[in-house]
Amino acid sequence: MLKQKVQQTQKTKLSHTLRSWLPLLQASIEDLKENLEQISQNNPFVSVNENVKTGENGKNYFDSFYRQNTNSSLVESMGISKKSVYELLNEQIIPPLFPTKKSQDIAAKIIECLNEDGYFEYNEDFFLEYSCEEVERIRQRFKFLDPVGVGAKDYKEAFLFALENRELDASLYEFCRMLILDFENIHNYTKQKLYKEALSILKNFSIPPFLEYFEDSRVVVPDIVIFRENDEIKVRINDEYYPEISLEFDGQNHEFLSHYIKEAKNLIDALAMRKATLYKIGLMIVEYQYDFFLGKEIKPMTLKDLAGDLQRNASTISRAIANKYLSCERGLIPLRDFFAFALDEDGETSNASVKDFIYQLVKNENKSKPLSDSKILQLVQNEFKVDIGRRTVTKYRQQLDIASSTDRKKIYELEGF
Length: 417
Fold this sequence. Notes:
The structure is a single chain. The strands form two sheets. The protein has a four-stranded mixed sheet. Strands 1-4 form a two-stranded antiparallel ribbon. The protein is flat and about 80 Å long. 49% of the residues lie in helices and 7% in strands. The chain is an alpha+beta fold. It has helices spanning 2-26, 32-40, 61-69, 72-78, 85-91, 101-112, 132-139, 155-164, 170-181, 195-203, 211-216, 258-288, 303-310, 314-321, 351-363, 373-384, 390-399, 405-414; strands at 46-49, 224-229, 232-237, 244-247, 325-328, 331-334. The N and C termini lie far apart (79 Å).
């Protein structure tokens, strides 16, 4: 009976830590502080602080990695505090374009209905007080706001909004408008006299309207760092970007506070478990993929392989690698990219190798005659001698965010190829 009680107590302790650990394990390093604050918000004894420590020669990890791998002026400019695109939009909701409180209220609700590309998605719950005509009248004024194209319903209308802001002669304006409205058949206009001039105008528009804002905000910080030292490949956790958890109590044994103190200690243990798990994953990736860090290809490797070695289940490993990156001499790499499965009986060809091959094929294809999925399949089979189907090639192409051959041809024509 006593033994059963002890086991139950140990299981309860572990479950408390695990409940904190799993959300922290899944969070990206950029979101870690926010996650810690959410978990600890009801605990008066926990303080979560930024912890960007400096390394050798006064440089932190961001300085040493990003200044070597990106344009330094871009990095420095991104260090300047920028307003969000939503703040910029709200600052423009003023007279004379929006002269009344009603027009400003409708405009503010329109901003709330913008999707991640900057396009307007009507939500009737937001506009119960207003008619569709009123909302549409105010939305049309967005064509004069910055970023250009914001508030449009789709990419065609965004191009039309942008066109409104250009001073063009009537014939060129009408030709640009015609290209936009018949964008699917733009290749039919290549021999028209104004085609090249109109195309150069359209190419200068930043569509979707939020494109530049969200590209600028994309700064990836790796959790794991792989580096060489004395001809040895080593692993370390990027501690510089881990927040610090502080316990703030007087050290006295207050019984009514014991729950909070225990919870705070569990949170510290959970953060330590995250670090330990990711460190072990880094070690196992180096062991399995040693040749990759010497310049060769990624080998077939599954979550199950790693889960067995780490004595964790595959779902835990899947959480651990989600939204995580590793930096090494070959660049910044998502952890998921290291988990490829074998496509041949010998286990030598991974799906990652085939995806990279497809990517290179499309990158170097004849722009006037893009490769179809059937042709890509033929080239893959010739290169790797693997038995896969056309649907698999289509799936890999889509995972690589590569458009179909028909859509690529339209894109190439728009780009002037």
